Amino acid sequence: MSFWGLSTSLRVRAFSRLQIVQKHLMSTNAGMEKEVHLVKSGCAGVITLNRPKALNALNLSMIRQIYPQLKKWEQDHETSLIVIKGAGEKAFCAGGDIRAVTEAGKVGDRLAEDFFQEEYVLNNAIGNCQIPYVALIDGIMMGGGVGLSVHGHFRVATEKTLFAMPETGIGLFPDVGGGYFLPRLEGKLGLFLALTGFRIKGRNVHEAGVATHFVKSEKIQALEKDLVSLKSPSKEDVADLLNSYHVKSKDDDKFVLAEHMDKINRLFKVNSVEEIIENLKEDGSPFALQHLEILKKMSPTSLKITFQQLEEGARKNLSEVLIMEYRLSQACMRGHDFYEGVRAVLIDKDQNPKWKPATLEEVTEEYLSSCFKSLGAKELKL
To answer: Which end of the chain, N or C, is surrounded by fewer C-beta atoms within 10 Å?
Structure first.
C-alpha cells in the first residue's frame, strides 16, 4: 500500500516519525565533531560537552560518542584518568534532550527507548569506571548532567555550580541513578531534594554530599592542567591533588539547609507522600508551608513513583537501580503527565500543567506496582 493509501491518522503518525528521524539524523550528522570533544591530554582522556547554547544538554548522538571512548580509555594503559567538563560559561550539563524524547514518545518512536537505555548504560559505566573519573562541574548540573558526574569517583563544584533534580515538576522522576545516590545523602535530604526539586548552589553542593570537592571557578583551568600533567596517577594521587585545591578554597559558610535539616529529617521520615503532606501542614512553619505549596504543584504520580524509587533504591546497587529506573522511564512514556509537564514547563511555558490523576489519592497502588514491573525481554541490559 502506498503512503497516500493509508488512513489520515496513520499518515500523520508516519509523517511525525519521519520528522523525528530527520531531526535526530541532522543532530547526529551536524554535531558529530562539535557536540562533544573527546581528546587525549597528557595522562587523561578529556570529555568536553560542547553544546553551550543548549546548556550542554545531553542527546543520543553525544551518548553514542562518549560511551565507546570511555570504555576504550578505561582499557588503555596510557590513559590514567578521565576528566569531563562542559563548554561555555553557564553549564556543565543542564539535563537530557527532553524535547526530542517527548516528540518520540508521542508517536511511539524508538528514540524514547534508546535514549534512556543508552544513557543508563553510560551512567553505569561511569559508576563502575576502573580508572579515576573527575567531573569539573563549573556551572549548571541537572538531570542528565547529574548522571554524567555524580557516579564518578570525584565531583568538583565551584561557586557557579547549580544542582537540582526537578523532574517531579515535569511528570518524570529523578532518574540517571537518582534512586541510588539520593537515599545515600545525609538523613532525608535526598528525598527532600527529589520530591521538591530544591536547588543547591556553589559550596552547598559539596556540603550536601553531591560533590566531593569545592574549588573556586578561577582555579578550575589550573586544576585541569595539573590533573592531566600527573604521571600515571593512582586514585589516591588524584585525591591528593584535588584535596590540595579544595583546602585553599575553604571558608566558614554554613550549609544552606543546615538550620532545616532536623525538620527535614523529622517531616520526611514517613511511609508515604500523603504523610509528608500532613506533616508539613501540621508543622505550619514558613519553611514547611513553602514546601507544601511546592509539592502541591508537582505531578502526584511522579511524587509517588519517586518516593518508592528512593525507598527501593536504598537497598539496591547502582546497576539494579538503573534497571528499575528504566522500567519507570517506560511507564512515564506510556503515561500522561510527562508529556503534559514538558508542554507546560518547556514548550508553552504556561507553568500550569493539568496532571492526570490530579490528586495523590487517585494514584493507586495497582498503578504504582505496574510501573515497577519487569519489562521481560525489554529489560535494560547492563
So the answer is: N
**From first to last of its 382 residues, what are the pLDDT tens digits of the chain?**
444 455 555 554 544 554 554 555 444 444 444 899 999 999 999 999 999 999 999 999 999 999 999 999 999 999 999 999 999 999 999 999 998 999 999 998 999 999 999 999 999 999 999 999 999 999 999 999 999 999 999 999 999 999 999 999 999 999 999 999 999 999 999 999 999 999 999 999 999 999 999 999 999 999 999 999 999 999 999 999 999 999 999 877 889 999 999 999 999 999 999 999 999 999 999 999 999 999 999 999 999 999 999 999 999 999 999 999 999 999 999 999 999 999 999 999 999 999 999 999 999 999 999 999 999 999 999 9
Global confidence as pTM: 0.91
* The C-alpha cell that represents 123 in the structure block: 551512567
Taking the CA atoms of residue 296, residue 300, residue 303 and residue 309 in that order, the dihedral angle to the nearest 10 degrees is 170
Whether the CB-CB separation of 72 and 123 falls below 8 Å is answered with no
Q: Which residues are catalytic?
A: 96, 144, 167, 175
Which residue from 170, 136, 147 is spatially nearest to 95, judged by alpha carbons? 147
Cα separation values, 238 from 54, 218, 247, Å: 31, 20, 14
The contacts of residue 149 (CB under 8 Å, 6+ apart) are 84, 92, 93, 135, 137, 141, 155
Which one-letter DSSP state was computed for residue 233? -
